[in-house]
Amino acid sequence: MVLRPEPILRAAEKAVGKKRATKLFFSTDGAELNETFAKKLSKQKDILLVCGHYEGVDERVAKILKAKKVSVGPYVLTGGELPAATLIDAVSRHVPGVLGKAESLERSRVSSPEVYTRPEVLQWKGKKYKVPKVLLSGNHAKINEWKTKRGKSVKPRH
């Protein structure tokens, strides 16, 4: 089933009115959402998200709205709800105050994809798994050096 254009265009018109909103249309052939795009969108005041379901939305909607096509990845989902939620989460992290403080942004602090909790030595099925000694040292310079070294070789988590 393809969603007809008229109801979506009427809803978009009601939602946006005369505002100059950024209009996004989720589509498998759209530009892939990334951190740079999310940060840019966080500066926008009004954003309209057009989400299809199953077969999608009549192509003329994107054309009439002059909407930018966006994809959240090289795969197909049953609807646009999850891509919309993903975009909202990725964008809202960059809105001042959402995370509490700017230092909470992962890209702006020394970070590693490796994180640990207690106990210092985990025993699982007869094997021992230890937290790296440097993390137990209390030497913040060495810890930051360790995190930086590991953070550079790994792509950010999504």
Q: Which helices and strands, and how do they pair?
A:
Blueprint: H1 5-16, E1 22-32, H2 35-41, E2 47-50, H3 60-65, E3 68-71, H4 81-92, E4 121-124, E5 127-130, H5 133-136, H6 140-152
Parallel strand pairs: 1-2, 1-3
Antiparallel strand pairs: 4-5
Helix pairs in contact: 2-4
What does this structure look like?
By secondary structure, the chain is of the alpha/beta class. The protein has 2 domains: 5-92, SPOUT methyltransferase, trefoil knot domain (Alpha/beta knot); 110-152. Helices cover 34% and strands 17% of the residues. The chain has 6 helices and 5 strands, in the order αβαβαβαββαα. Strands 2-1-3 form a 3-stranded parallel β-sheet. A two-stranded antiparallel ribbon has the order 4-5. Helix 2 (35-41) links the parallel strand 1 (22-32) and strand 2.
Helix content: 25-40%
Let me know the CATH homologous superfamily of the largest domain.
SPOUT methyltransferase, trefoil knot domain
If classified by CATH, what would the architecture of the largest domain be?
3-Layer(aba) Sandwich
Question: How many domains make up the coordinates?
Answer: 2
Shape: elongated
Beta-sheet strand percentage?
15-25%
Note the total helix count: 6
Trace the largest sheet across and list its strands: 2-1-3
- Secondary-structure element sequence? HEHEHEHEEHH
Gyration radius, rounded: 22 Å
